[in-house]
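Thread: "does anyone have the structure for this chain?"

Original post by V.I.:
We have the sequence but no experimental structure in hand. Need at least a predicted one for the grant figures.
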Amino acid sequence: MSFNHIDIEKKWQSYWQDINFGSCELNSKKPKFYNLCMYPYPSGDLHMGHIRNYTLGDVITRYKNLQGFNVLSPMGWDSFGLPAENAAIETGIHPKEFTEERIKNMKTQIIQLGSIYDWDREIAAHSQEYYRWTQTLFIKLYENNLAYKDDAPVNWCSSCKTVLANEQVIDGLCERCDSTVQQKTLNQWFFRISKYSDELLDSIEKLGHWPDRVKSMQSNWIGKSTGAEFNMKIKGSNIELPVFTTRPDTIFGVTFAVIAPEHKLIDEIVELAKDKSPLKEYIIASAKKTEFERMSSKDNKTGVDTGLSVINPINNKEIPLWIADYVLSNYGTGAIMAVPAHDQRDFEFAKQHNLEIVEVISEDGSTHNLVEAYVGEGILVNSEKFNDVPSHTEASGLIIKWLEGEKLGRYVETYRLRDWLISRQRYWGCPIPMINCDDCGLVPEKYEKLPVKLPEIKDYLNNEGSPLSKVEKFVNTECPKCKQSAIRETDTMDTFVDSSWYYMRYLTPDSDEYYFDKKLVDTWLPVDQYIGGVEHAILHLLYSRFFVKALRDVGIVSIDEPFENLFAQGMINYGGAKMSKSKGNVVSPEEYFKTHGADSLRLYHLFMGPPTDSVEWNDNGIEGTRRFLNKVWDNIQTLHSLNSSESDSIGTENLLILINKTITNVTNDIEGFDFNTIVSDLMKCNNSLTDYLKENNQVTLESKNLLIKTFLTLLYPLAPHISSELLEITLGEKIFLEWPKVDERYSIQKTFELVVQVNGKKKAAKEVNYNISEAEAIAVAEKLMSKDKLQNTKKVIFVENKLVNFVI
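Reply from O.Q.:
Generated one for you, tokens below.
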């Protein structure tokens, strides 16, 4: 028979579906294993990044099944939000129609890949059955003061025409469309993730097997800082500006103060100023800049002098107050004490605007003419009674104690992490289930009236404001409290809200009584193995961690973390850039399914490099894995056709010893996610089988069946179609039942190939007994070589169980 991958793969995919192979009985007595791949945006066809993800996940699912685990491996669709909506806008097809068409197609492609999922648990974020419960959980958070609405400066994408969370802005650009992001002040909805800053940070090291780089990215994003907070009073007023510094030891070096252009006190400060026009003009100009532009400008630190002075409380010195856009209102307190001698940004600003620079930390105790800010350690100078105290460590503590003793300031801990902005002025998203009543204020919709349904409208394109605000039937409603006329909230939720809890819904996907069963969640979570791209290290993973902790505090779950073990795969690049639909460099798997087969494609993804690394797609790389499978196809059937013997040859025993070693290697490599070396080991084993079949024409039935079943079982998680077909052809079995165990009879190697070298070059070889002595090995080697070729031998080098080298 020839290896007809198209027919074979269709056959086994149909069989697995017919027997519902991926189905999981949650109450089974087997040990549980929750294996989860991140669910995809259905905004196009599968690309090679998806294929890599779902191949890795399927290897684990099949492997754990064979180990006797009750494996839960579900799949669903992150079907609300910008990716799906933008794709629909590009095609002119309504988001709902486009999304459901893509879901159907992507599901077909996943089945074509051979990945096994419990499709009875399939969910989609845009279905009413799902977003009803997203809205329910939102209200639960709102009732527990974990969701709120407030005015705030926000990131506005003029192309997507919506607000973006800080995490969705990359180098000043929208992560989805690469358009420049502007700053606006809008009334928005937030989740109070900052309440969990300490716990999110402290529990990072308590996570299971998470990549260090992901832990580091989350830690840096939370960004804990410690230092002092104190007020600087504006002279001639009752206004006090709170400032925070991580360097209290530099407080005597403050020579000016800076406030952000969008600071909440900015209007009062402008009103105090004598010359208001330049301040107003500067504030307007700053609003047109992106946060990235404001933070990254190296050559031109812009600012405007308010003409006002503030008082440094530590020495009562009057210093000028400036407005400058390199200070942001959503970091720290939105105002800073500027120490140009010891902060490079302050130094550049002071130089540009001819402001005083006072050195207060010196490496050698003397003062210097600084050409840049000194940020190293030293001792305090120009710091009155704190002179000569070592900086940073000792001095900071003493100055904080002094501030607290004088009731001028206090020790504080601050975080870079800001509350999660979830409002989106988009159509394709989960409606926020809140109502604005003139008498009652903000009121949540009643639980029994959920879901607040997303109306199916034709005019879903964004202008200023949400498309839902134009739908009168949606907007006009009644207040759940007083029954008076009221207006429904018209923003939708960030798609990351949907993906922050979907892994819990898989446990009870069809329930119309509750979002999920708490007992099942507490039993099955945290997820044992979570698999997805490293690009979600901050957004999705951090939000999911917050969501679990918030729901725990509300009393809905008992767990503390969503994911026990995390595997973050590297990205697939093509043409030097990350493969993605938005960049237009996607390689579709469809053609490879036809020409090479799913198993060849799976193997290439596993073989192309360590799965943690980003790799460049090579159109020719799949040829090698196809050749390997062709050889496996031939070898297994040839082995099966060998005549039976009463005893095994040394060659058979050596092959059994090799397959035993391969069991250990493959097992360890699957556990360690070293999939590329698994393919290498199986290729080596197959090469040895090729050599064996050239020298042997008979084998005992027991050994033949053992070799066939063991090799195919090891290959099965990686290439399940060809493995299943060969198992049925040779042994008449349709299902692999258990993972192979090492057979102690074949744990010790009996022979090896002794290589004979002359001056380091191979000249001959012979199969000899393992652990042969040096004298015996040299004697064998001498017999293989003629005496005249060895007559000028100066030295003989012996490497045990490997070679003899004659140095001539």
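V.I.: this helps a lot. The radius of gyration is 34 Å.
O.Q.: and The longest strand covers residues 147-157.
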